[in-house]
Predict the 3D structure of the following.
Amino acid sequence: MTPIRYGMVGGGPGAFIGAVHRMAASLDREFELVAGAFSADPSKSRDMGEGLGLHGGRVYGDFREMISAEEEREDGIDVVVIVTPNHLHYPVAHACLMAGLHVICDKPMTTTTEHADTLCHMASERGLVFAVTYNYTGYPMVKEARERVAAGELGALRKVVVEYSQGWLRTLLEAEGQKQAEWRGDPDRAGVSSALGDIGTHAFNLLHYVTGLETHRVFADAGTVVEGRVLEDDATVLLELDRGVRGVMLVSQVATGERNHLRLRVYGADGALDWCQEDPNRLRLLDPDGTETMLFRGGELGAGAVDATRLPGGHPEGFIEAFANIYRGVARAIRNEGDEGEAAPDYPTVQDGCVGVHFVHRAVESSQSKTWVEMSQVSANMDTTI
């Protein structure tokens, strides 16, 4: 099958997530990187493109140049992957949609709710695929958790606890010129939030994906622990979910010693489940009497987990494979696969991205006002935000 041609914006020298996207996109040979505007510095962009083996004529100084030039080619790009700092997500995505290009965008989708709503409408009106890389939904055992909740195995849901703790910003790393910390701590590039926008949005999406519950109200306490930091590095959020289900979210970038501790626990009347990203091949089930059952990736699982599994049990799969599952879902959507027994495309959509942006802003608003704040929701048909 002919690979889907993509161009990348961002992901230049020193950028962690750009390399992850490139590895994930290549794993199933569904995508081929053919063009890029990898850095705001044209010379760095050229060097990056050369290192990746791209033809020099398809390495560009900025994203507008890339979109314009690729439109003129018979073998031009079909998709643009956006892996820039947050403030550039909207202008790049907007230009891509205007040009009729599909989009794969890192999170958070935009820095404002108005821009998020606009992209949601545009993608729907133009019939374009727009994915937001909430990559943790790509893990097989997350899909297994989702199927078991949907099947009612936990009974009526009562409480959800999601935590995303890191310790990498326990010092004022941005003052030392560390690239990843520097832009995340800058409101002009990161937006209104650091911890909530960077990792809290992942935790929120994971909760929503597994439980299927919408959030109606939030009460947040977000603050700055490290002196001299502008944006928050720690937050606790209470969530009022569908049917009176209670939710708690813990988010921190200053949890000393923690690496990438994303954990979800869902409690129902008849059982509970527990999944942790640092041990992603296992799903812990709990019965009311305290009996624990451990499920392993590669075992007898549901269709979603099986479809997302690449290796036999006992051979660990992890971050790149989960990321690649998002790309595979996008490829299926672009190719309109999913019929005749094929697994339906399963990837985080522009709607998920829009809801995530609204969550971050409502949580920041709640923390500032010290009150419960209503969560706006994006309608199911993706045409209207209310």
The chain has a mean pLDDT of 94. The radius of gyration is 20 Å. DSSP finds twelve helices and 14 strands in the chain.
